[in-house]
Design brief:
- The structure is a homodimer.
- By secondary structure, chain A is of the alpha+beta class.
- The first copy, chain A, folds into two domains: 146 residues, PurM-like, N-terminal domain (60s Ribosomal Protein L30, Chain: A, 2-Layer Sandwich); 169 residues, PurM-like C-terminal domain (Phosphoribosyl-aminoimidazole Synthetase, Chain A, domain 2, Alpha-Beta Complex), CATH 3.90.650.10.
- The first copy, chain A, contains ten helices and 13 strands.
- In chain A, helix 2 runs parallel beside helix 3, helix 4 crosses helix 5 and helix 4 packs parallel to helix 8.
- The relative contact order of chain A is 0.16.
Chain lengths: 341, 341
């Protein structure tokens, strides 16, 4: 039988101590981590980046299929992704948790295991947070800090016409992973004896449950000596993000359907579940790939990077953000936005 | 009739734009606020302080008596209080909200009005956040940054034996305010025609609903040329906080019952509701006053500050944290901690 220790046996301060004891500081810029009224950070003469994300049970995740370890990892990764999207290096995170007594100490340990693995992978220090009861579901609020030299920070509003539009990795997988998980959940609820059939959907399922921030691409771009002219991470789908870049930069865009990188498994799962793979890529969300623009002169420097795909270019007319389809016709890119309400 | 605009009419991006438009940046250190993947902050060569607090409906506040405007103010104030407790100057906040569709746009506007008034008072910039749906109640997660010169930061673990223990303002009021509000709520639920009787409890009620961070005291101490030897803000009650300072500094403490500052109204309300005023001060919580220690040599420099009271001194024996009662007997200071679980 599994051990179950009630959170009340540990108490809030006990839980904080437990987290503190399992936390190793990695960055010289972290002067003081958990254990005082605030953490103390040095910025070593660089600019500080800060971003925050709120994950709420029943809205952002479903514990009936999201393992707590993956969820902890994801909470850190999606925040790190925002620092990547500024061309920064992540340094610290704070993690606040709202917990109902449904959760045991062992469950919280699992969540923190995922958080700590992500902190190792992305080389960030856990420096603080808050723990609280919650009347309802699990609430995870993460704030991340990062550093960047002033002239290396990449904003959303600085793309220029003729800049080449690039994307990392492939798109639509996380959305199809979510659909596959939802489908299996319904099957399971209808017949608890059914075995889940997710073996051939492993890639898309993992993209949904345990996404990665593309810090590897940030390092590749630095090595190639390229600073993007604008950048954003793809949390709400390619359509929403290209519209953000265009609206804020005052540009239009031409994208090409046949350039959009979509994994074979995304195609297979989309076909099986009656979704359009292109719609998954455009509006699916949660891919956490990077969408960025570069000067045409920089193309030679990045073309060897296998995980970067050029998908179009910026244009001068802000009224026209369009995708040229395989058929040759151009259709306007639109997005309902990712309306959570 | 009051206007009611559904959040869905605005959408997440609409809500973010609305917040952005109502936000004026005040600090030269805020390079870029809301509107990109992360905010960009300069630290002007100082150390960065960061702290975060999570407020959850039904645990930290009850909307049946907490006006949204006050709640917004309080969410900022309790975070600023953590920066004050490090002897820092607050600079920026991020605010994340989990909202159910029970809330209208007008309700969120009220909440942000309170947030913005607090940002004005404490001279902090709202630089980012996240908005999300919530299946259940309102969730507010605030992260605050602050700056301090390296040699001015005050930690919890640096008090020395014989240091004088000081406290700002008065204690126990916020707790008695909460008890008064809870009592009135029960009366109202039993008989909705009853008028609330809170006129003579205005001070304690406001201390609960709209606490202030004692940045004024931080400025007074700076003017007096005094850097405390240790400091913490009183969120969980004097007992819990002095135990934190002693445990982390490796000291004991002698406190004196007759020195503990308690407001007359706190006495009156405590007596009416059958509470001990001293217990309210020791274990009540949410006062957000500052508890700090100073070197004996510095006493002359702070004794003119009317809102600072000396309540005891640090001792060498870490096993003895006690309060000398008016009767002359000494009793051990204990705290159940503020166990939310």
């Amino acid at each position: 039988m599994e051990n179950r220790t009630e959170l009340s046996a540990l108490g809030e301060f006990g839980l904080i101590r437990r987290i503190q004891e399992n936390t190793n500081l990695k960055n010289a810029e972290t002067i003081k981590g958990i254990g005082d009224d605030a953490a103390v950070l040095s910025t070593a003469g660089q600019e500080l980046l800060i971003s925050t994300d709120l994950l709420i049970e029943g809205i952002h995740f479903d514990l009936s299929y999201a393992p707590l370890r993956h969820l902890g990892y994801k909470a850190i990764a999606v925040n790190v992704s925002d620092i990547a999207a500024m061309n920064g290096i992540p340094k610290q995170v704070t993690v606040s948790l709202g917990l109902s007594n449904r959760f045991s100490v062992e469950a919280i340990d699992e969540l923190y295991e995922g958080i700590q693995v992500a902190c190792e992978n992305y080389k960030v220090d856990l420096v603080g947070g808050d723990t609280s009861a919650s009347r309802s579901g699990l609430v995870i609020s993460v704030t991340v800090t990062g550093l960047a030299a002033k002239d290396e920070i990449v904003y959303r509003n600085t793309a220029k016409p003729n800049d080449i539009i690039c994307v990392t990795g492939d798109l639509g997988a996380a959305f199809m992973g979510l659909q596959a998980l939802e489908r299996e959940k319904q099957v399971y609820l209808a017949n608890p004896d059914m075995k889940p059939e997710l073996e051939e959907k492993d890639y898309v399922v993992l993209r949904q449950l345990k996404p990665e921030a593309r810090m590897d691409m940030i390092h590749e771009l630095k090595e190639a000596g390229v600073i993007p002219t604008s950048m954003i991470d793809i949390s709400d789908g390619l359509a929403s993000e290209i519209l953000h870049l265009c609206r804020q930069s005052g540009t239009g865009a031409n994208l090409f359907e046949d350039k959009i990188p979509i994994d074979d498994q995304t195609y297979l799962v989309a076909t099986e579940l009656n979704f359009s793979p292109l719609t998954a890529a455009l509006n699916g969300g949660e891919d956490y790939e990077l969408l960025f623009t570069i000067r045409q002169d920089d193309y030679e420097k990045i073309k060897h990077i296998t995980d970067i795909t050029t998908i179009g270019y910026m244009t001068a007319d802000p009224a026209t953000v369009q995708m040229v389809m395989k058929s040759g016709t151009a259709v306007a890119v639109t997005s309902p936005g990712f309306e959570h309400f």
